[in-house]
Each structure stands twice: as C-alpha cells, then as structure tokens.
Amino acid sequence: MSSPSGGSIGIGFAIPSEIATGVVDQLRQFGQTRRGWLGVRIQPVTPEVAQGLGMTGAKGALVAGVDDPGPAAAAGIKAGDVILSFGGVDIDAVHALPLLVADQPVGKEVPVVVLRDGMQQTLNVKLGSSTRAASRSRMPPRRRPPPSRARQLPRRRRPPHPRRRRALA
C-alpha cells in the first residue's frame, strides 16, 4: 500500500492461492464472482447461551436473524436456531460458517443440521447468490457524516508579536 507521498507504508495484503484460483475461474466463466448465500445473520454460541439451550458445549452458530426472502427462510431456518453442521461439516466456531457457505456453488442444495427446541433437525437449503443478496440489501445508502464541529468554529488567532502590535497601533 502506498502513502499519499508515493512511498510504501509497509502494509500488504495476501490472498490464499486456492481462493484466488476459484475467483479467477468464476470471473472467466461468469464475468463476476458468484458466492453461495445462506441468508442468515449469526452470532457466536457463548457458554452461557449453550447452557441455556441445553447444549453440552459452546459450538455452532446461533441464528440471530433470517433474511426473508432468502434461502434459509425458504428452508425453514428460524432465528434462535443453532446451526451445528453445514454440508456435513461440523461448525465448531461461528467464523467457519460464512467461509463454508461462500465456497459452495450457487444453487446447490446443502443439508444443514440445526438445533431447535432441544432437538436436532436436518433441513435442506438451496443456496442463493451473494450478488443478489447485495442488491436486495435493506440498508439505506451511506451518507456523509456532518462536518465536525471543530471545522465550523472560527480559528483562534495568536495575539500579534509586541513589535507588530506597536506597528499596528
């Protein structure tokens, strides 16, 4: 990354080659990237939440919300469910789920094991496209924040030097 003066400020970014290869293949085939989309908002399962749900350990991803319309809603996933596995892969930590979902092709039907009311259920979800999800976003457009108060205040002037003060008088 370069600085405004043109020099390097020592920050770099790296992308694993297996991700880059997949992205390049998608760009060649579709002209854009196509990532799987589940349509849920998730949060970690804390030990307290796990205990409250009667789970033996804090694992999985707690569904905080479901995008409607979306693939998860169509399959019957509800807020409050805990996703325990996705496509046969156990979800040990919440950050694993988005990576697994994004790696799946759009339109693929994937078995998702959820914990609901103390019972495990397997639901089949047909993944949507993350590009469609972005276009359906309910977020309002970002607006610039109002200018800071500091910019609106007049600048304080230093009193003139004593010699200059005599010249001004």
Apparent shape: elongated
Give the ordered list of helices and strands: HEEHEHEEHEEEHHH
Poorly predicted residue ranges: none
The H-level CATH homologous superfamily of the domain at 17-131, spelled out, is: PDZ domain
Query: Under the CATH scheme, which class of the domain at 17-131?
Result: Mainly Beta
Largest sheet: 6 strands, antiparallel
CATH topology-level name of the domain at 17-131? Pdz3 Domain
Taking all Cα atoms into account, the compactness measure Rg is 26 Å
Report on the structure:
- By secondary structure, the protein is of the alpha+beta class.
- The protein has a domain at 17-131: Pdz3 Domain (Roll).
- Helix content is 30%, strand content 22%.
- It has 7 helices and 8 strands.
- Strands 2, 3, 4, 5, 6 and 7 form a 6-stranded antiparallel β-sheet that branches. A two-stranded antiparallel sheet has the order 1-8.
- The longest helix is centred in the first third of the chain and has 14 residues, at 17-30.
- The radius of gyration is 26 Å and the shape is elongated.
- The protein starts with 16 loop residues before the first helix and ends with a helix.
- The mean pLDDT is 81.
